[in-house]
Amino acid sequence: MDFAAPLPGTQDLLFDAARRLRRCEAALLGVFERAGYAEVIPPSVEAADVFGAEAFRALDRSGRLLALRSDFTAQVARIAATRLAGFSPLRLHYRGSVVRRLGEGPVHENLQAGCELVGAAGPEADAEIVALAAASLQALGLEEARISLGSTGYFSALARAAGASEKLAAALIDEVDRKDLPTLRSLCEREVPAGAAREALLMLAQPPRPQTAARELLAKASALAPSEDALAALRRLGDVLERTDDRRLEVDLGEVRGLGYYTGIVFNLYAPGAPKAVGGGGRYDSLLGRFGDPRPAVGFSLDLDGLVAVARC
Amino acid sequence: MDFAAPLPGTQDLLFDAARRLRRCEAALLGVFERAGYAEVIPPSVEAADVFGAEAFRALDRSGRLLALRSDFTAQVARIAATRLAGFSPLRLHYRGSVVRRLGEGPVHENLQAGCELVGAAGPEADAEIVALAAASLQALGLEEARISLGSTGYFSALARAAGASEKLAAALIDEVDRKDLPTLRSLCEREVPAGAAREALLMLAQPPRPQTAARELLAKASALAPSEDALAALRRLGDVLERTDDRRLEVDLGEVRGLGYYTGIVFNLYAPGAPKAVGGGGRYDSLLGRFGDPRPAVGFSLDLDGLVAVARC
Full-prediction pTM beyond 0.90? Predict the structure, then answer.
C-alpha cells in the first residue's frame, strides 16, 4: 500500500496552510454576516439526483444511489425550496468541500464558500451579489482582482435568434470562451445566416471592457440586438452596472461558460497569480423549480483553495 | 423524487443551529490552539484501506477503491507517519465531518473535532490528552460532564491471563459494557477457570468511581492482578489519575469498548442530557505502524452534533 500521500486530486492542509485557510474563511464569514447572510451547513452526502453528472456517486447498502456534494448551490436550492419555502428573500451563505469527478480521472476535492440570494428577481439582487463578491475579494486583500460580468441570457437570446442547434450553441460557446475570433468567424459564416444575430455573436469575442467603457460596448451591442430578449438581457447588464461601483468590475459579453443552470447574468472572478478563475456566480431562475418551488435566485461561490494561494489577509 | 429532506442519517444545519455549531467550534479551537495544537485538514476522500470496515466505499472510474472519511484519527496517523515522520512530538487538531455505514442502514454523517498527540509514550501524554478533553468540556460550559477513564490494556491483560478466545473476549466486553454482573458472572463461571483473572474480570462490572475514590478501586484491582501486564496497566491508570486534577474525571474499569486500535488508556465523555457519549479517546500505539512509522500516540475526538445540543457557550 502506498500511503505516502493523499489521493491525487485531494490534499492535506497542514499547519500554516490550514491557518491561512481558516483566516480567509473568517474574513469571508465577516463579509457575509455583515451583509445579512446566514449560514447553512448541508450534508456532504445527498440523494444523487440533487446533483449533476459530475458528482461522485455510489450505491448504499439499501441500493439507494447517493452522491458526494459536488455543488453547494443545488443543495441550498433544495433547502430553500423545501424547509425554507415560505421565506423570501433568503440570504444564505455556506462553506465546505465539494468533490467532483473530472472525466475518467480520479475525484477532485475543492474547498468553497459562497452566498445565495433566493426569491429576488430584480437587478438590485444581481448587483447585491456582484457587490458581495467584490467585498469578498477586498476582504482577502485582492485589490487587483477582476470581476468579469457577462450574461448567459444574452447568449441564449443570440443563439435562439440565429436558429442555432444545441450542438452549434455548444461549439459557439467553445470559441467564444477561447476568444478565438478567426475560428468563431468561420464557424458563424458557415453555420449562421448573415445578419444582426451573426454580427452580435462575433462581438462576443471582443476583449473585456472596464466599467468605465462598458456602457459604450453595451450600446454597440444593443444596436445589433436581433431580438427583444437580447435587448432585455443587455439592458439588465446595464442596470447591474449602474448599481455597482467597483473598479474590479468589467463587462465581457463572451463570459458565457458556466454551470448549466444559469439563466441571466453570469460572472467569473480572476485574481493575479491564480491560474484559473477563483470564483464565479450568476442568476439561476429555474433551479428551485426542480425542487418544486419556482423562485428566482442569484449567487456566487469562491474557490477557497485558489484564493488562499493568492490572498493577502 | 422526494426532496423534502436530507437523507436519513444526515442533516441540514440552518441559521441558529449553524451559528451554535460555529460558536462551539470556535470555543474548542481556542482551547486546542492555546494548548499548542496545530490544525490539519485532511481530505474527505481517501484510499479505502486507510479506514476500517465502517467506511462508505465506492470505486472511482479508474477502478480504485475510495472511501469517505470515517475517522479522523486514521488520517492524522497517515499524515504523521508520512509527511510529518521526522517531527516528534506532534500536537495536531482537526474538525470536520465523518461518514459511516451503520449495519445495513443508510450512511450516517457526524461532525467531529479532536486532538492527537503523536510520538509521546508516557503517562504525562495520556494526562495531557485527558486534561485537554476536560478543558474542551469546560469551554462548552459542561460543568457536569464526566470523563470515564478505563484501560483496554488492562482488559487485554485480563483476557490473556484468562486464556480467553477472541470470541469469549468479545462476549465479555458486551457484558462488561452493559454492567450486567449476573450475566457476566455466569459467563465467567462457565468459561473462565476460577482464580484471580476471573475475580478481576468480575470487578469490571463495578460502578465508576469519582477521582477521590479511584485509588481504592485501583488498589483492590491490583491485589487481584493476574499478571505483570495487568498490574502495569493499573499502575498506568494511577499515574494518569495522579497527574489529572479535574472533578469530571472518574475511573471505570469497565470502560473497555472503543475503536479497535486502542492499546492503553481509553475514555469516554458523557454530558447530562446527551443520549450517548459526546466523545472519547485513548492511546493507540500500534496505528502509526500500519503506515510505516511505528510511534506511540494518544488522542480524543468530540461528537460535535451531540455536544452542540447540550453545550452552554
Answer: yes
